[in-house]
What we know:
Shape: globular
Protein name: Heavy-metal-associated domain-containing protein
InterPro entries: Heavy-metal-associated_CS, HMA_dom, HMA_dom_sf
Keywords: Metal-binding
Number of helices: 2
Radius of gyration: 10 Å
CATH topology: Alpha-Beta Plaits
CATH architecture: 2-Layer Sandwich
Largest sheet: 4 strands, antiparallel
Structural class: alpha+beta
Pfam family, one: HMA
Amino acid sequence: xIRLKVTRMNCGGCARSVTRAVLGxxxxxxxxxxxxxxxxxxxxxxxATRFADAVRSAGYGAEPLSTAA
Length: 69
């Protein structure tokens, strides 16, 4: 499970944009968004850095969280 801390994601439209960015990297990924906590959980075999870069390209801040977080 990949977890990203995403900033500037504060509404349903933002969550949809972030989901689209994630699915652009891996169309088969499963995405779960905690809007209040700013956490995006992604089930995928792809690399966390690729997802973070895609979310940043969509206009949001994104940092991978350690698996222990």
